[in-house]
Amino acid sequence: MGQVIFVVWRECFEALLVVGIIYSWIKHNPDSRNGMPYLYGGIGLGVLISIILALIINGIFKELSDDHQTIFMMGMSVLACMLIVQMVYWMNKHARSMKSSLEKEMAQQVARHSWWGALFIIAIAIAREGSEIVVFLSGQIMQLNSHNYAGFCIAVLIGIAVSALTFYAFILTSRFIQWKKFFTITGIILLFLAISLLMRAVEDGTNMLLEHDISIPDFLISPAWDTSYLIDDSGLIGSFTSSLFAYRSQPMWISVITFGVFWLLMAALFLRKKSK
């Protein structure tokens, strides 16, 4: 539940930032009366695209056999990991220029007397965030049933509500708070979520190979350590830290290696960006 709330909160907050920038720009445009319906239409279209994507993913998953479902979930987890890394990298690189870039695109469309172009800019921005939510949470979406559907919906609603409150706080305190630090901190947490998804894919793949009696070096599947006496990842706190921060009380060595290689690659990627 914590993973769902965090992902929805962060992505909805980014979507609200985009909508807020465009709303402010349209409001100060002489043709704002004609522009506003296209803003709302773009929001609606973006949300609709995200819902359709969720239905497609869920529909494909239910048509697959057990092994193929596992492979499909592994692929979605790896894809989500890659998208998170790309998103955090993009935000670190373009967060400062996002407002000016959006306003420039809007101005170009309106100069061509094309509010429809503005609608698609908004729809793409919303659909991008919504699609990322769907992909990031694909594992939970594909496992929804009558027992956990209500809890998932509640977590989504909490995430949306918290993002709205965060956006309101952003408007009130944007002159006093360094929001670059906000994106840096949440970006780091998102990277932890990325490695959590990647490790899940690696572990599911390892378990599937073992179920089919495919030999794996004992070293890779043996436990590296046992910290279950401190925090058991089957408990409430352990489950939360496991889903959001990739914690394992008894990790296999293959998971430890995956964790280490991932962070070495992230350090190389982001340190290289800073050095340029």
Automatic annotation (TrEMBL):
<keyword id="KW-1133">Transmembrane helix</keyword>
<dbReference type="GO" id="GO:0033573">
    <property type="term" value="C:high-affinity iron permease complex"/>
</dbReference>
<feature type="transmembrane region" description="Helical">
    <location>
        <begin position="113"/>
        <end position="137"/>
    </location>
</feature>
<dbReference type="Pfam" id="PF03239">
    <property type="entry name" value="FTR1"/>
</dbReference>
<protein>
    <submittedName>
        <fullName>Ferrous iron transport permease EfeU</fullName>
    </submittedName>
</protein>
<feature type="transmembrane region" description="Helical">
    <location>
        <begin position="72"/>
        <end position="92"/>
    </location>
</feature>
<feature type="transmembrane region" description="Helical">
    <location>
        <begin position="182"/>
        <end position="202"/>
    </location>
</feature>
<feature type="transmembrane region" description="Helical">
    <location>
        <begin position="149"/>
        <end position="170"/>
    </location>
</feature>
<feature type="transmembrane region" description="Helical">
    <location>
        <begin position="252"/>
        <end position="271"/>
    </location>
</feature>
<dbReference type="GO" id="GO:0015093">
    <property type="term" value="F:ferrous iron transmembrane transporter activity"/>
</dbReference>
<dbReference type="InterPro" id="IPR004923">
    <property type="entry name" value="FTR1/Fip1/EfeU"/>
</dbReference>
<comment type="similarity">
    <text>Belongs to the oxidase-dependent Fe transporter (OFeT) (TC 9.A.10.1) family.</text>
</comment>
<feature type="transmembrane region" description="Helical">
    <location>
        <begin position="6"/>
        <end position="26"/>
    </location>
</feature>
<feature type="transmembrane region" description="Helical">
    <location>
        <begin position="38"/>
        <end position="60"/>
    </location>
</feature>
<keyword id="KW-0472">Membrane</keyword>
<keyword id="KW-0812">Transmembrane</keyword>
